[in-house]
Amino acid sequence: MSLEQNNSTSKTEEIRCIGCGAVLQSTDEHEPGYLPASALQKILSGETENIYCQRCFRLRHYNEIMPVQTDNDDFLKLLSTIGNTNHALVVNVVDLFDFDGSVIPSLPRFIGDNKFILVGNKIDLFPKNTNQRKVKDWLRQQANKVGLFPEDIFLVSAKRRTNITEFLSFLAQRAGKKNDVYFVGTTNVGKSTLVNAIIAAMGDIKDLITTSRFPGTTLDRIEIPLAEGNMLIDTPGIISPNQLAHFLAPDQLDLISPQKRLKPVTFQLTPGQTVFLAGIGRVDFISGPASSFVVYADQKLYLHRTKTVNADAFYEKHVGELLVPPSTDQLAEIPSLVGKIFKPQDKSDLIFGGVGFITVPGGITVKTYTPNQIGLGMRRAII
């Protein structure tokens, strides 16, 4: 599978940003695809090949996000067009650290009778001794629980390009010459980064899709021609209300989103003790023998142990200052912490979607908290 080298663009056609796919325009800076008229004129006259909107340019060069007006309903309508064809192979990308926040239970409604592949991204962030078979089994079980039955499952790292070659070989064989390949997923799962990794593996191309840790960086579908005559299509990310990322400012999101392989932090706890994961997560040890609680989260995330009897007062006093995120100016926007009791029978992982997980032994009772229980869960330990 290789890229078709065709970079010609008619000036009479709509010119799209090669970063986000939005149609370029110079009339409204708050709408997708905006760039100054002088910059657009340079593109039209052929003076420059940097066909980026102002938003993508600043994102690529300054890591600066510029908000634009987008409509999630429009995104869903765009995805629904997949169901109008019987010649599509759908690749659904989910975040292994935030399955509940990144899963799309209604996917079959959008894609019709087309088959789909489930790809779990960010496997590189798990410790080296992670049993990937267990991760894949867990991912399939979670998908089945919400009514999704993928044709196959792959674990990859779009950022580190782990398992990309194997996935690409499968994709080339499965798609053949008839099927366009659609990449779908919620925002912030690394979908466009995965497409970039595949593009790089297929051939030499200079212009890659805009990617960022900020949600919603692909604003319109981006079509990439393949040599076989079919297309590789990156669609916009669906905005999920079950993602913690949408309640945090970009600088705060950087504090909780794992960027490197997670290193365990162990707490020896007895019943009546609590561990805070900054101000967006909490676990209370309710009952059981003294136990090791092993936290897997980004090293930048502040962890704090205290007595459960003092936990509420400690949180009220320090949230937004010591317990960050959230910051003080976000407290009114982020939902309150709400707890849920878990009673693992065997060694298990307590899941904090989008943040990490805590491995605990069986035979204990705990209560875990996140804002409005977003991303809370438990699974059989994968390490």
TrEMBL record:
Pfam families the UniProt entry points to: MMR_HSR1, YqeH-like_C
Domain named CP-type G: residues: 76-241
GO MF annotations, alphabetized: GTP binding
UniProt cross-references to InterPro entries, sorted A to Z: G_CP_dom, GTP-bd, GTP-bd_ribosome_bgen_YqeH, Mito_transl_resp_regulator, NOA1/YqeH-like_C, P-loop_NTPase
SUPFAM superfamilies assigned: P-loop containing nucleoside triphosphate hydrolases (SSF52540)
Database matches in PROSITE patterns: G_CP (PS51721)
Stored NCBIfam families: GTPase_YqeH
Protein name, as recorded: Ribosome biogenesis GTPase YqeH
The organism of origin for this protein: Amylolactobacillus amylotrophicus DSM 20534
